[in-house]
Amino acid sequence: MIQPLTYVEIYRVILPAHERSQNLPKDTMRVPFEMRIRGRLLKEAKIGDVVEIETQTKRIETGILMSQEPYFAHSFGHYVPILSDLRRIILDETEDLS
Amino acid sequence: MSYQSVMDQKKDIMKNALRLDYEQFEYPGIGFDYEKMMASSGYTLEDVMRIQRENNVGQTPMIELKRLSAYARKFAKPGHGARIFLKDESQNISGSFKARRAAMSIYQAKKLGYKGVIAATSGNYGAAVAALAARAGLKCIIVQECYDSNGVGQPEIIEKARACQAYGAEVVQLSVGPELFYEFLVLLKETGYFNASLYSPYGVMGIETLGYEIATDMMATEFRFPDAVIVTNAGGGNLTGTARGLKKAGAINTKIIAASVDLSGLHMASDSDFNMKSFTTGHTGFGIPFSTFPDRSDVPRSAARPLRYMDRYGLVNQGSVFFITEALAVLEGMERGPAGNTSLAMAFSIAQEMKDTEIIVVQETEYTGAGKHMNAQISFASDRGIQLKLGNPLDESPGHNIIFPSSGSMLKHKELDLRSLKISYLKHYKDVMLFEQDIIYLSEELNTTVDEIKQLLEEINEAKK
User: Fold this and answer.
1) What is the distance between the alpha carbons of residues A8 and A43, in angstroms, rounded to a whole number?
2) Terminus of chain B with fewer CB atoms < 10 Å: N or C?
3) What is the rounded average pLDDT for all residues in chain A?
4) Are strands A7-15 and B139-147 parallel, antiparallel or unpaired?
């Protein structure tokens, strides 16, 4: 079980597909409009439970508990050979400049 | 609250969240008094400068890119290849020119006694609002369009979420769709916070100092105004504010050139297209619709009205912006962007048409970092099956490939026809009865003569028949 006051991320469907705005491309029309938000868990729960959290601005949000202690894992990405090509082209073409 | 019931309350929610009565600016007919709206805040340019200075915003370095200019000159006719200068806006608090806009929104929110602010943005503006709200002791919520329906987040937008949280803001992350505006209204209603809109007069007047500084920086070192200023164009506020600031400094002959990344073929509200692009702003998906219909924004009348000021509009492809981002790093020692370098890619191409004594100013840079770095974006694209190749960048097909120039000589922009943009703008009124005062308003909106408006309207009517 995840203890109260643990930092968590929840998920909630804001609008199911059939309640979405008209004027949408077909692929978007088929899927729900969703939200993810982080905050402090108010009551003990496990992943998959519908829970309440207190957000950074002290609002209460309800949703499905998705993860415990979420963190940012975005990076600079993996090696991409073409970037080395760009660097070589630019440096070769500017070698004769003062 | 159902979608429709919230949308029906839009007018009241917006009014409470800005406390600006837009009705007072309306003309009979289609128009409104733009200058009256811009002046209604009562802030002078000097006030804006002071407020920004107190917040570590503005007064950024202006740098001549001598090696990059020489590189472009190599591919120009003799006597051609303008000098390219760069305003290093990444040196603002929060890392982009957006701090100029946020400074004024936050100042106004604080002055009116709001407890917090909300902004709908997936870009640098979020970090800017969060940082300045932190300085003002205001609570802050940033609403982002961040994930596709598989829960895959755009790395650049995730980085912005991280930055916002670092400044103590709450981040609401949404999936793809224009219903972001619905959730934005729900949150404004629930919290009673201020709408820190990019399109309010405050959001645009904050950029006037950028145009003003460009003019005065150049006058101080080169004893003249620049021949052209190139502005990355999305929602139009950057271009509008910069142009207004240049005029206020007296630089009335400086050409204002818009640049966007060409994302033709990708639908901005499409769930499956969302993660197929490598640029989340500065692109045609915002730049063209917001130019041809500014009042699509989150306020009744947008203060960002780019066609009032634009002299030219050019497009560059994703591969060219990555190329110039690399060039800026290895030739000038500046690791910036990539999205903010859209105007730099355009400058590299346009410089070659201009004389070598002429001056181009590229008016922004932005910070780079995990997620938003070009390596992060290109690696993300390749993982999603986007083909990466060297060649002629103008052959790029957004969503399918990224074509990087195989030589600096291949980096060319594509000119957009301003006349066709004006026609797109006017088509919004094709079924409206227009009177003389409306035509005068349209001539101001499109920076042209009453006669040209009449002629363009006639062409639209002919095409209808």
Assistant:
1) 12
2) C
3) 97
4) unpaired
Whole-angstrom distance, CA of residue B133 vs CA of residue B22 = 25
Core vs surface per residue B11-40: b (16+ CB within 10 A) or e:
eebbeebbebebeebeeebbbbebeebbee
Identify the residue whose tokens are 């060319």.
B412
β-strand pairing of B170-175 with B83-87: unpaired
Could you give the 3-state DSSP secondary structure of residue B25? helix
Whether residue B287 is predicted with pLDDT greater than 80 in this model: the reply is: yes
Summarised one tens digit per residue, pLDDT across range B359-407 is 999 999 999 999 999 999 999 999 999 999 999 999 999 999 999 999 9
Contacts of B151 in chain A (CB under 8 A): 36
- Residues in A whose CB is inside 8 Å of some CB of B read 14-15, 19-21, 23-25, 27-28, 30-39, 55-57, 59, 72, 74-80, 82-83, 85-87, 89-91, 93-94, 97-98
Strand ranges, E, within chain A: 7-15, 33-41, 50-54, 60-68
User: Tokens 């195989």 sit at which residue?
Assistant: B406
Nearest to B71 among A55, A83, A93 (CB): A93
Q: Are B102 and B241 in contact (CB under 8 A)?
A: no
Side-chain half-sphere of B208: how many Cα atoms within 13 Å? 26
Element (DSSP H or E) covering residue B464 = helix B450-464
Q: What is the pTM of this model?
A: 0.97
Angstrom distance (rounded) from CA B397 to CA A81: 20
- State how far the Cα of B267 lies from the Cα of B246, in Å rounded to an integer: 34
Distance in angstroms (rounded) separating the CA atoms of residues A73 and A70: 9
First and final C-alpha spacing in chain A:
66
CA distance B187 to B181: 10
The complex scores an ipTM of 0.97
Find the mean pLDDT for residues B417-425.
97
Is-contact B71 A97, C-beta < 8 A?
yes
**Chain B residues close to A72, C-beta within 8 Å:** 158-159, 161-162, 370
Residue B310 neighbours by CB under 8 Å, 6+ apart: B233, B239, B243, B256, B257, B258, B291, B418, B447
Task: Provide the token pair at A33.
Answer: 């409009």
Q: What are phi and psi of B94, to 5 degrees?
A: 75, 0
Instruction: Count CA atoms within 13 Å of residue B327 on its CB side.
Output: 31
What pairs with residue B338 in β-bridges?
none
- Number of residues written out for chain A: 98
Which residues are CB-contacts of B314 (< 8 A; sequence separation ≥ 6)?
A: B257, B258, B259, B346, B349, B350, B413, B414, B415, B416
